[in-house]
Write a structure and sequence with these properties.
The chain is α/β, with parallel strands linked by helices. The chain folds into two domains: 195 residues, Medium-chain alcohol dehydrogenases, catalytic domain (Quinone Oxidoreductase, Chain A, domain 1, Alpha-Beta Complex), CATH 3.90.180.10; 132 residues, 3-Layer(aba) Sandwich (Rossmann fold), CATH 3.40.50. Helix 4 crosses helix 10.
Length: 336
């Protein structure tokens, strides 16, 4: 099979020939049809995640079909359409697992970090990490839903917001353009927050009921004029912009952060105490959460906006993403 690997931290993408892997006990082999390129792939490319064993195949937004199953696998059968995301499996034995909170497994496996990922024609994964995929979702459109999609979908559905309440989505990029779609289709009064009037038409096309241009005034004040946000989904990894949104929350409102930035937030205790406001983070979900994401996307028509590249051009596709030139999501396709 053909695969694209990184041989050392900071190394180049290498197109190589490898033997097709065999699934072990409790594993499945997936014939990959499409794999999204995520900013988190830089963890593998640059070696930012400690303990990665090289060479390593990146990619954790995987859509394809079950090709073979290992011993003791009863849930999946060859030929089934499936997806695989960031969460690559769990131990079933630690305290979080025993409580059913698998995403917090103390020994969590991560796709493309704990084992080889989806920049490849075939890959092997733990059976518990896999998600069933509806037949009407094309593989290239389904792939980004396995990371970007599940992250915003799962964050919104667990945010506590109720139908009809005001939910704001900060950012109209790879995460935000999906967050706006999910929020509006979940029945929230959806407000998109971006910079520049040129993004308004797109935000409204995606389903936003209101658009706030941060270049025209403080978004927190504008949100309060609309009654305050029950939830603000922060997708753009800009800690300064996120911090400026806290005062736009309604009473009992939540700032839910999915955009992974490294700088500190600047928020005072008084901002949170008054109105019982809170800040929380959210990271992806399990295989079952991915399955829910794919099913909801199929039913509601949520789709990512994508740029397609063949597997052989993985380096070019990654550069398109990491440089910021890609407007939304970049996807590798394995077919001819």
């Amino acid at each position: 099979m053909k695969a694209v690997q990184i041989s050392k931290p900071g190394g180049n993408f290498e197109v190589v020939e490898r033997p097709v892997p065999e699934p072990g006990r409790g594993q499945v082999r997936i014939k990959v049809e499409a794999c999204g390129i995520c900013h988190s792939d830089a963890l593998v490319k640059e070696g930012y995640w400690p303990g990665i064993q090289y060479p390593r195949v990146p990619g954790h937004e995987i859509a394809g079909r079950i090709d073979a199953i290992g011993a003791d696998v009863t849930l999946w059968k060859p030929g089934q359409r499936v997806g695989l995301g960031w969460h690559g499996g769990h131990c079933f034995q630690c305290d979080p697992c025993r409580r059913g909170d698998f995403i917090l497994c103390q020994f969590e496996k991560i796709t493309a970090i704990s084992f080889d990922g989806g920049y490849s024609e075939y890959m092997v994964a733990p059976a518990e990490a896999v998600a069933a995929m509806p037949d009407d979702l094309p593989a290239d459109e389904a792939a980004p839903l396995l990371c970007a999609g599940i992250t915003v979908f799962n964050a919104l559905r667990n945010s506590g917001a109720r139908v009809g309440e005001l939910v704001a989505v900060q950012g109209i990029g790879g995460l935000g353009h999906l967050g706006i779609q999910y929020a509006s289709r979940m029945g929230f009064r959806t407000v998109a927050i971006g910079r520049g009037k040129d993004k308004q038409a797109l935000a409204e096309k995606l389903g936003a009921h209101e658009y706030l241009d941060t270049g025209s005034g403080a978004p927190a004040e504008a949100l309060q004029k609309l009654g305050g946000a029950r939830v603000i989904l922060a997708t753009a990894p800009d800690s300064k912009s996120m911090s400026a949104l806290v005062d736009g929350l309604a009473g009992n409102g939540k700032l839910v952060i999915v955009g992974a930035g490294s700088e500190s937030l600047t928020v005072t205790p008084l901002q949170l105490i008054g109105g019982r406001k809170s800040i929380l983070g959210w990271a992806s979900g399990t295989g079952k959460d991915s399955e829910d994401t794919l099913r909801f996307s199929s039913l509601s028509g949520v789709r990512p906006m994508i740029e397609r590249y063949p597997l052989a051009k993985a380096a070019e596709a990654y550069d398109q993403m990491i440089s910021g030139r890609a407007r939304f999501r970049v996807v590798l396709t394995m077919g001819s």
